[in-house]
Amino acid sequence: EELKADKDVVLEAVNQNASTLRFVSKELMGADEFVLEAVKQNGFALQFAPKHMKDDKQFMLEVVKRNGSAIEFASESLMSDKEVVLEAVKQNGSALQFASEELKGDKNLLVEAAKQCGWGTLLMFASEDLKADKEILLEAVKQNGKALQFASAELKDDRDI
C-alpha cells in the first residue's frame, strides 16, 4: 500500500508498464497533476486515467502532442475535435485511425498525417470520399505504390493513377 502511494515509484513503474496506473492509491489517482505526469511518461496509461481527464480538451492536447496514439483513449467528443486530432496526427500520423468518421474525411487532416508518417497504409483510415479523390491518390501513389490498394474501385482503373 505504501508503494502504491509513492509518486516516484509509481511514475517509474508506469514508465515501464502503463497498466500499473490502475493499481495506484486513490489519493494519487485523484490528483490530476500526477495523472498528467504519468500519462506524459507513457501515453498508454491514459486508458486507466479518470474519465473526466479523457474529456478534458486542454489535458488531451498536452497528451497527444507527446503521444498522438493516446487519442485512442480520449472521449468520443474529443475524437471529433479537429484541434485535438490535428495535434495527434502531427505527432503520429497513424492516430488518424482513432478520429471520428467525419474527421477521417477531412482532407487537411489526411495531408497532415501523411507529412508525419508518409502515405503507406494511411489511406486505410481515410473516408471513402478521400479514397476516391484523384489528387490525394496521385500524391499517395507517387510516394508509396502500396497506397493504391486503398483506392476506390474507380481510381484503381484510372490510367493516370
Automatic annotation (TrEMBL):
Regions annotated as coiled coil: none
Domain DUF4116: 1-28, 33-78, 81-131
One Pfam family cited in the UniProt record for this chain: DUF4116
Domain of life: Eukaryota
Alphabetical list of InterPro entries matching this protein: DUF4116 (IPR025197)
Protein name: DUF4116 domain-containing protein
Species, as recorded: Strombidinopsis acuminata
Lineage: Eukaryota, Sar, Alveolata, Ciliophora, Intramacronucleata
